[in-house]
Amino acid sequence: MIGNRPIKFRILELFLDGKEYWNYEIVSKIQVEYGMNSGYGRDSINFDIIELASGGMLKDVEQKVDEEGIYKKDFLLHKYVITDFGRVRGSDACLKYV
Amino acid sequence: MDLKALKKQESKRKISKGYMWALFCAVFWGIWYLPGTVVWALNPFDQMQAAIAETGGDGTALVVTAVLITAFNALTVMLALMIWNGVLGKYGELGRTLKEFHPCSKWFFLASIFGGPIAILGSFIAMGFIGGAFAAVSGLLYPVVGSILAYYWYGEKISKRAAMGIGVIIIGGITIFGGGLLSDLSSGNVQWIGYLGGLMAAAGWGIEGAIAGKGLDISEPDAGLTLRFLGENIIWWIIIVPLLALFGYPMYSFALQVFEPMTLLVLIFAGITFGFCYVCWYKSFPLIGVGRGQGIGNLYGLCSIIFIFLFFGQVPQWTILVGGTLCVIGSFVMFTEDASALETLRGE
């Protein structure tokens, strides 16, 4: 079922295990799954994560400076965790709890 | 650079971008009332109205013509959004979202029922009967409908401040509708279908927003909005236009006459402005929060009055100006309290 559901569904699914993830971990995973390897693809996936966070489905729990350039050098990296509302919306979207 | 400075820089960048998108939305939305008003005076729509009025009466003629105009509006919006999605490389995501009918895209189709045949048709009816400024400003009442619906549907609480904003918007609405009605009453000619159109715009957009939100928060807005307009095109071109044709209205013969350069140009202009105002609106939400995004987006009411003045030289009745200002103030009072999305912007 890789790469055939809407990207935000897949992002929520990755978070449904309740663990905290850095944005670059999720972005690079989605990039591989959906074949979006360009810089533009990376930014658009990251914007999806920002939208999910602003919709209250993910919570921004930690930030750090990207000193080594793992994602974008000298930009902020964000760490997110799923919220209760995110779980509800995730299960509405027929995603399975892990 | 240290963490604190970077956080500040990031939130600054987010906020300025978000305001830019929201302002673009207001400008595009305001401009939309120009082609929306002009199109009534163009062939084939003016001929269509005259032809139907001969046998069916003025009211029927206006509504049936409004249906055809709204249907073409939906078509050109769809065209603009397909080009937009193509440029962004989102056809894949569009297909994936469409396939998730049960959890996701059904909400877009449901939203399109309220957005299209109620809100947009109502707006065109209001533009045709009463005028662009009235149509634009009466649409500003939509947050009242939306929040009352959210209260009953999701059990969302209405805070004191939001209630105050709703109160101001309602007073604004009474001014807009009441002022026009009173002068109509004194002249003995009440254009009640036009006022009904204004109410349809407010109710339709309020309901649409509440429903579409259920699908949009788990999909990409570019794809979601396109599906919402796909739904509206199906409603018009597969259901309502053929039905009206069956009832004997000359839908197809007039529809085929839109291929005049001026008419096409105006319709495409309407599609581009309307399509992109939706896109900009949704782009602003994650950056400055839904509250501020909607508050600034509602400046479209003032934008439309300015554009209508600049292009048509029409100064609306003072009741529309006062009522519109009240609605914009009310929406600021109501929306800017929503701090949930702003907390993340403030960082710390």
Question: How would you summarize the topology of this molecule?
Answer:
The complex is a heterodimer of chains A (98) and B (348).
Chain A: H1 7-15, E1 21-22, H2 23-34, H3 39-54, E2 58-65, E3 76-82, H4 84-92
Antiparallel strand pairs in A: 1-3, 2-3
Helix pairs in contact in A: 1-3, 2-3
Chain B: H1 3-38, H2 45-56, H3 58-88, H4 91-99, H5 101-129, H6 132-139, H7 142-153, H8 160-187, H9 192-216, H10 221-246, H11 251-255, H12 261-297, H13 300-312, H14 318-335, H15 340-346
Helix pairs in contact in B: 1-6, 1-12, 1-13, 2-3, 3-5, 3-10, 3-12, 4-10, 5-6, 5-9, 5-10, 6-9, 6-13, 6-14, 7-9, 8-14, 12-14, 12-15
Determine the number of helices of chain B (DSSP H or I, runs of at least 4 residues): 15
Distance between the termini of chain B: 16 Å
Rg of chain A, rounded, reads: 13 Å
Stretches with pLDDT under 50, minimum 5 residues of chain B:
339-348
Kindly list the characteristics that best describe this protein.
heterodimer; A: 98 residues; alpha+beta; Arc Repressor Mutant, subunit A; three-stranded antiparallel beta sheet; 4 helices; 3 strands; 47% helix; globular; B: 348 residues; mainly alpha; 15 helices; 0% strand; disordered C terminus
Give a short overview.
The complex is a heterodimer of chains A (98) and B (348). Chain A has 98 residues and is α+β, with helices and mostly antiparallel strands.
Folded structure, characterized:
- The complex is a heterodimer of chains A (98) and B (348).
- Chain A has 98 residues and is α+β, with helices and mostly antiparallel strands.
- Chain A has one domain (7-92): Orthogonal Bundle (Arc Repressor Mutant, subunit A).
- Helix content of chain A is 47%, strand content 17%.
- Chain A has four helices and three strands, in the order αβααββα.
- A three-stranded antiparallel sheet of chain A has the order 1-3-2.
- In chain A, α1 crosses α3 and α2 packs across α3 (39-54).
- The model of chain A has no long low-confidence stretch (mean pLDDT 86).
- By secondary structure, chain B is mainly α.
- Chain B has one domain (42-346).
- Chain B has 15 helices and no strands.
- Chain B has helices spanning 3-38, 45-56, 58-88, 91-99, 101-129, 132-139, 142-153, 160-187, 192-216, 221-246, 251-255, 261-297, 300-312, 318-335, 340-346.
- In chain B, α3 (58-88) runs antiparallel to α10 and α6 packs antiparallel against α13 (300-312).
- The longest helix of chain B has 37 residues, at 261-297.
- Chain B starts with a helix and ends with a helix.
- The model of chain B is unreliable at 339-348 (pLDDT under 50).
- Chain A binds chain B through residues 4-9, 12, 34, 40, 44, 47-48, 50-57, 60, 63-65, 74-76, 89, 92-94, and chain B through 1-3, 6-7, 10, 88-89, 92-93, 96-97, 100, 102-104, 217-221, 223, 285-287, 289-290, 340-341, 344, 347.
